[in-house]
């Protein structure tokens, strides 16, 4: 079994839900406290042992490249001031992984973005991490998914349980018990086998309440399937449709398993969830949490009128 060592991060979206902030700034560069969202995602991949990262970008995404490049002038200024703490923070983003870039061109969907990584993947299994959400480092998900791939081959999809009224916002999985049972040697995870996938179904047509989140570990066979997948929902090439094909044809690229995740996950895909993420992480920060919690408690109790 070939080791999973590559990560693909689609980052070509326009970020329209955050306009006007994203008019000239990629949404992936919006800060969550003092780091851009995309850095949390890359750190998650690196912590799971994925040291080679491809970002699939579009126009106006140059700040992503700048962030993960060296900043010689800034580093020299910090070094001259003796500010070692900030110097280390600045250098961290350029030293954490081998980061590559390819442009998606036409915005034809997530499946199309993944297909742009075909030559980079070069026949190896790989992970896909969507930049709109990330997993708390204290509750890792990717290592469990990589372990499932190592045991069973095929592809692995991250899943969460959602209320029935929210399932229309996600890809949804039809599942059956995994042959070896649900146990995995990782907290906050359990294993099932996926038999079918539906992209954003109405609640009445949803096969379960298990929603696909933006974490995948994929067999390279998905690239050949994507190349033959016609546009689906929204006129876009859907990764969900390609995985559905694989789930129904395990001889093509192995089975498709799901890892059901119950740990801490943060969503930054829309303004209200972005604000929740900032608050959740801020109250847990050793350097900021105490003061911020005290202020927040006073504000809610005394200053905020419902």
From TrEMBL:
GO terms for molecular function: nucleotidyltransferase activity. The keyword Nucleotidyltransferase applies. InterPro entries: GalU_uridylyltTrfase_bac/arc, NTP_transferase_dom, Nucleotide-diphossugar_trans. Pfam families: NTP_transferase (PF00483). Residues 6-277 form the Nucleotidyl transferase domain. Its EC number is 2.7.7.9. It catalyses: alpha-D-glucose 1-phosphate + UTP + H(+) = UDP-alpha-D-glucose + diphosphate. Keywords: Nucleotidyltransferase, Transferase. PANTHER family: UTP--GLUCOSE-1-PHOSPHATE URIDYLYLTRANSFERASE. Belongs to the UDPGP type 2 family. This is UTP--glucose-1-phosphate uridylyltransferase. It comes from Catenulispora subtropica. The lineage of its organism: Bacteria, Bacillati, Actinomycetota, Actinomycetes, Catenulisporales. The gene is galU_1.
């Amino acid at each position: 079994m070939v080791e999973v060592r590559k990560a693909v991060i689609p980052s070509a979206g326009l970020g329209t839900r955050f306009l006007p902030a994203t008019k000239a700034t990629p949404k992936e560069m919006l800060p969550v406290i003092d780091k851009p969202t995309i850095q949390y995602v890359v750190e998650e991949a690196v912590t799971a042992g994925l040291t080679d990262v491809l970002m699939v970008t579009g126009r106006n995404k140059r700040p992503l490249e700048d962030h993960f490049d060296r900043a010689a002038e800034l580093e020299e200024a910090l070094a001259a001031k003796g500010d070692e703490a900030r110097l280390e923070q600045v250098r961290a983003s350029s030293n954490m992984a081998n980061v590559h870039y390819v442009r998606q061109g036409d915005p034809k969907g997530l499946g199309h973005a993944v297909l742009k990584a075909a030559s980079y993947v070069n026949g190896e299994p790989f992970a896909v991490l969507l930049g709109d959400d990330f997993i708390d480092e204290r509750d890792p998900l990717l290592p469990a998914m990589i372990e499932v791939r190592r045991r069973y081959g095929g592809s692995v999809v991250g899943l969460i349980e959602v209320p029935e009224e929210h399932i229309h916002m996600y890809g949804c999985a039809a599942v059956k018990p995994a042959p070896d049972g649900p146990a995995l040697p990782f907290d906050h995870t359990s294993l099932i086998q996926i038999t079918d996938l539906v992209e954003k179904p109405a609640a009445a047509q949803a096969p379960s309440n298990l929603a696909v989140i933006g974490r995948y570990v994929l067999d390279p066979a998905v690239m050949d399937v994507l190349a033959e997948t016609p546009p689906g929902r929204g006129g876009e090439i859907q990764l969900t449709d390609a995985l559905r094909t694989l789930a129904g044809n395990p001889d093509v690229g192995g089975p498709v398993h799901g890892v059901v995740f119950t740990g801490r996950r943060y969503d930054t895909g829309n303004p209200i969830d972005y604000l929740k993420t900032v608050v959740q992480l801020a109250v847990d920060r050793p350097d900021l949490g105490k003061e911020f919690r005290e202020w927040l408690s006073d504000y809610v109790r005394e200053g905020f009128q419902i």
